[in-house]
Amino acid sequence: MHLPHYEIEFTKQGAVFDQSQVTQILNDLEQFSDLLVLSHGWNNDIADARKLYEKLTQSVERVIDEGVVSSLDQRRFAIVRLFWPSKRFTDEDLIPGGGAASATQKNDDSLLRLLENLKNDPLRLGDDEINPIRKAAMDKAKALVPSLDSDPQARQEYVLLLRSILDPTAADPDDGSEEFFSRDPQDLFEQLGEPVVAPGAAGSGGATSVGGGAAGIIGDALSGIKAAARRLANFATYYQMKNRAGIVGFNGLASVLHRIRDRKSDIKLHLVGHSFGGRLVTAAASVLPPNTPAVSLTLLQAAYSHNGLAKDFDGSRDGAFRSLLAEKRVSGPVIITHTKNDRAVGIAYPLASRITRDQAAALGDQNDPYGGMGRNGAQHTPETGGLHGKLLQVGDEYSFAPGRVFNLRADEFIKGHSEITGFQVAYALLKVVQAVQ
């Protein structure tokens, strides 16, 4: 089976770049019973995003053709591929020198590269657009780097410059971002200057691997002022993408979904997000009307707080997207793949969240208030029923049901952050589709 596909490109403000793309989808809606709406995560260009989409779509088509998911033969599918201006985290910036404690030069190189990249604020995915205000701020930050070790005032100014290019209105208590804007800069440097090694790792010196399997998480073993400066720059990148994913989801995709449902009220919507794209589709779904029928949500290594869907995660506060479940804005199943093999979420997200912690050397597992969804699945979320499942082999049986959340541990099949295009993922997605009637 070949599934027809459509593309929608969003700007950084969440506006549809070419309205004719949406018009084409609306004009063709009567042909389809189901739309699979796919959002990439951190990518640097459209070509990378298209490759991801093509691989996942090919796996979906192959599983449909195999006939292992019953009752799909009467459904008429189309794919909607979203593009938005994201940025990519790289291993060499997350773990310079592979985690070796002696890799100070690589840390310094990474720090300067991150600051240079923060000048870029593209309107569209793949653009190389330097924002003059951000350029001036990051040039000043780069000039401060040689003085950071010896000059407290330089460290103070460095943090203020990073803050100056970010929008504080997107700060949340569940990922450390409120504290990033409010804590004393000297405290931030102290907090983020210690090594960060996964729980259970054998010591903190050098690269360490935990969790078994071929792709354990590697700890960030570097320490010191410039290691903290790099982590702060990584946080700025993380925060910018978190904010942008929310803007595109709330303002852009949500509006498109409303138009689609206005045109064809019975069309089934299956929202699928990878990495920060998981936050994007979650944000869009969270502003659908309460009790919206025939909507499912598939989060593939999502890069947002594992408390994002939580109820009373700290005894008094709900997660940022709690209403999505509490008010049944997504009525179908929600599935979430998570794995300790995901270096990007397993390290980048907890590093970004270390700001509030007393012990910066602990990496965020399921007991850490600041862990990531793609590392641990949804925490403190009653719709899971306290159950933890696994991503299964094609043909094995799931028990997906509307209104429930299913954490699927994917260690066996997902070996890295972007390895989400295999047959097992496609099969789980189609089992979710099957459950939406």
Please specify the SSE layout and strand pairing.
Blueprint: E1 5-9, H1 19-28, E2 34-39, H2 46-66, E3 77-83, H3 91-94, H4 104-117, H5 132-144, H6 152-164, H7 177-182, H8 185-191, E4 209-210, E5 217-218, H9 225-263, E6 268-274, H10 276-286, E7 295-300, H11 323-326, E8 334-338, H12 343-353, H13 373-376, E9 389-390, E10 405-409, H14 423-435
Parallel strand pairs: 1-3, 2-3, 2-6, 6-7, 7-8, 8-10, 9-10
Antiparallel strand pairs: 4-5
Helix pairs in contact: 2-14, 4-9, 5-6, 6-8, 6-9, 8-9, 9-10, 9-12
CATH class division of the largest domain:
Alpha Beta
Mean pLDDT: 90
Query: How do the strands of the widest beta sheet line up side by side?
Result: 1-3-2-6-7-8-10-9
Number of helices: 14
Biggest sheet layout = 8 strands, parallel
**Any guess at the CATH architecture of the largest domain?**
3-Layer(aba) Sandwich
CATH topology value of the largest domain: Rossmann fold
Unreliable stretches, pLDDT < 50, 5 or more residues?
199-217
C-alpha-based Rg, rounded: 21 Å
- The N- and C-terminal alpha carbons lie at a distance of 21 Å
Shape: globular
